[in-house]
């Protein structure tokens, strides 16, 4: 039984699902095993996380389930973990590409009723493309099924954000435009954009045409959200992301620049405001979010003058 590692980042902690994901997205970074042991029982995950939470309770406000697999690829497991996490008195967020309906939806609605009324259960529903999904994510629920998930979750009072990640260098903007339209129609609360990661062997980017990858800026980073801190190449065309963000905003979508910030927004956690650089004006304002160009790239903060 592997020892799990947890790390508080921007007020949230990621909790693993503990079973290999059957969806097999071509960009999936979990297959290298660098982000945690592949198989751990829900009971063991909860036992180890409860021990961590006892020591670090004041340091985080949100628990985010799912970075090593999809919590609703096997819904009973996701529900069991969420029920166990409910008792810790924190906001809960799950990250998924599953089509959540029927029994799984009922289970999730029950989790929500067990969560204290001042706490929020929310979801990140991920998409990386639209028409290209059969090639890029051949075994994953279709984008249309993920829109059903957003609608279903809304019905039971669980707000969703769409994680547009990874933004893929060879996918045309038109697919992202379709994605924004569909997600806004489905009732999502906003969008997050995320980079494409690659390990040294380039296992997660082999499906991307070489010419598209070579023209995308990449830099070696220690992955900040992972307790295992792998060093990977982060491919991210900031200018393109800004254009996509502007497009989403023009259609009425809110844009966030990190999932920590987005989830904090859903649970009305405005503590990140305190981290806004004192006395400085942002470089840009998008949907109530202040953007600052920093040495490590664009950083985003809630803006007190913003609209959201
Ligand atoms: S859904 Fe997530 S964990 Fe599963 S294969 Fe796709 S990227 Fe990997």
From TrEMBL:
All residue ranges annotated as the Radical SAM core domain in the record: 7-234
One GO MF term: catalytic activity
Keyword Iron-sulfur attributed: yes
Superkingdom as given in the UniProt entry: Bacteria
A Pfam cross-reference name: Radical_SAM
SUPFAM superfamilies: Radical SAM enzymes
Keywords: Iron, Iron-sulfur, Metal-binding
The name this protein goes by in its record: Radical SAM core domain-containing protein
Organism: Reticulibacter mediterranei
């Amino acid at each position: 039984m592997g020892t799990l590692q947890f790390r508080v980042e921007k007020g949230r902690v990621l909790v693993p699902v503990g079973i290999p994901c059957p969806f097999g997205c071509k960009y999936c970074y979990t297959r290298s095993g660098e982000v945690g042991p592949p198989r751990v029982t829900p009971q063991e995950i909860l036992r180890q996380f409860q021990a961590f939470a006892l020591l670090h309770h004041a340091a985080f406000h949100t628990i985010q389930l799912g970075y090593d697999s999809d919590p609703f690829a096997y819904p009973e497991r996701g529900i069991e973990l969420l029920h166990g996490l409910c008792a810790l008195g924190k906001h809960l967020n799950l990250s998924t590409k599953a089509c959540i309906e029927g029994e799984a939806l009922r289970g999730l609605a029950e989790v929500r009723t067990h969560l204290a009324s001042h706490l929020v259960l929310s979801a990140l529903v991920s998409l990386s493309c639209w028409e290209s999904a059969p090639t890029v994510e051949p075994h994953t629920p279709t984008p249309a099924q993920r829109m059903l998930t957003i609608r279903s979750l809304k019905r039971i009072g669980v707000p969703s954000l769409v994680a547009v990640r990874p933004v893929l260098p060879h996918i045309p903007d038109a697919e992202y435009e379709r994605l924004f339209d569909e997600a806004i129609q489905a009732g999502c609360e906003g969008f997050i954009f995320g980079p494409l990661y690659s390990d040294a062997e380039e296992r997660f980017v082999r499906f991307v045409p070489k010419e598209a990858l070579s023209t995308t800026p990449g830099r070696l980073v220690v992955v900040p959200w992972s307790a295992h801190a792998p060093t990977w190449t982060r491919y991210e065309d900031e200018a393109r992301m800004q254009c996509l963000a502007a497009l989403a905003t023009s259609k009425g979508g809110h844009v966030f620049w990190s999932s920590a910030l987005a989830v904090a927004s859903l649970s009305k956690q405005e503590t990140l405001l305190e981290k806004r650089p004192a006395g400085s004006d942002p470089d840009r304002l998008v949907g109530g979010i202040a953007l600052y160009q920093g040495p490590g790239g664009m950083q985003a903060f809630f803006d007190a003058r913003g609209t959201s």
